[in-house]
Amino acid sequence: MPHCEVMPYHGWQECLRVSDGNWELIATTQVGPRIIRCGFVNGQNLFWEHPDQQGKTGGSEWRIYGGHRLWHAPEHPIRTYAPDNDPIEWDWDGQRLLLRQPTEPRTGIQKEIEIRWGKGAVEVVHRLINHNLWSVELAAWALSVMAPGGRAILPQEPFQPHPEALLPVRPLVLWAYTDMSDPRWRWGNHYIQLRQEPTMTAPQKCGVLNRQGWMAYYRHGELFLKRFDHHPHASYPDFGCNCEVFTNAEMLELETLSPLTRLLPGAMLEHTEWWSLHRVGELSEEETAIEAMLKQVQL
């Protein structure tokens, strides 16, 4: 059974630690909603924390803070970067932790994150609620900001030979600053990998329509795995992406998106991820090694 306790953490006086004794999540309450830590008990934090923003609250500027956050897409300088610097409401009922942000004054959208501990995985439910008097088209955008020095792993679609397969199987979306020759990328037959390198400052990003329903981050012998649903008849943001990865010199982001939804006044949108942590030991970039590891974690 998981338990929840109130505790100070890295400058914030009230945070919430939820743990089953094996691994733990820590969420802030003075800002957010943010899940600022994810890791095994007494182990590394697989989430990145901004060293100059720990413990900060208030103010009108948007801060990244680190950890896991909820945005709404498509990206826009006003809508997306609405500050989340104020206290949130929270509730623990013995099984699930609910984190609820006040309605954003700029957008009229309210955000919630609900954490439900299950056997072997944690269900993280993201909600957007429209408190405007008009409908809004948007998508839930869940971003896990990962600690430096690891690498993201995204699945390719299953290989089929030509001419057996004649039609395309999914979009691969690039940004204006994406450099496909950057050595941090590895474009494999079965996986796309992106390393986080603290010495390389140029940002990199790509997005895909991920029908396999998972993405992962490997760091120092441990794997953070997130699963999500693919909705085959839905329209997704960013030319059809439900899965994106971004890196710069500080961190790397694993991002999933819900379908684009016309949210009526008073209506709510839900987007769910399932998280799990695994000790996998050394893991090379070779695809055979990744395939063997995935069998080990029973993907």
In sequence order, what are the helices and strands, one letter per element? EEEEEEEEEEEEEEEEEHEEEEH
The CATH class assignment is: Mainly Beta
Question: What is the CATH topology classification name?
Answer: Beta-galactosidase, Chain A, domain 5
**Overall body shape:** globular
What would you say the CATH architecture is?
A: Distorted Sandwich
Q: What structural class do helix, strand and pairing data support?
A: mainly beta
As residue ranges, the low-confidence spans are none
Q: Total number of β-strand segments?
A: 21
Radius of gyration over all CA atoms, rounded: 19 Å
Spatial sequence of strands, sheet with the most strands: 6-7-8-9-21-17-16-11-14-13
Tally of individual domains: 1
Mean pLDDT: 97
Estimated share of beta-strand residues: 35-45%
Terminal-residue CA separation: 24 Å
Percentage of residues in helical conformation: under 10%
Count of helix runs? 2
Query: What's the main sheet like?
Result: 10 strands, antiparallel
Show the helix and strand layout.
Blueprint (H helix, E strand, L loop, with lengths): L2 E7 L2 E8 L3 E6 L6 E6 L27 E6 L15 E4 L3 E5 L8 E9 L4 E9 L5 E11 L4 E5 L16 E3 L10 E3 L3 E5 L8 E5 L5 E6 L2 E7 L8 H4 L2 E5 L4 E6 L3 E3 L4 E12 L7 H10 L3
Antiparallel strand pairs: 1-2, 2-3, 3-4, 5-10, 6-7, 7-8, 8-9, 9-21, 10-19, 10-20, 11-14, 11-16, 12-15, 13-14, 15-18, 16-17, 17-21, 18-19
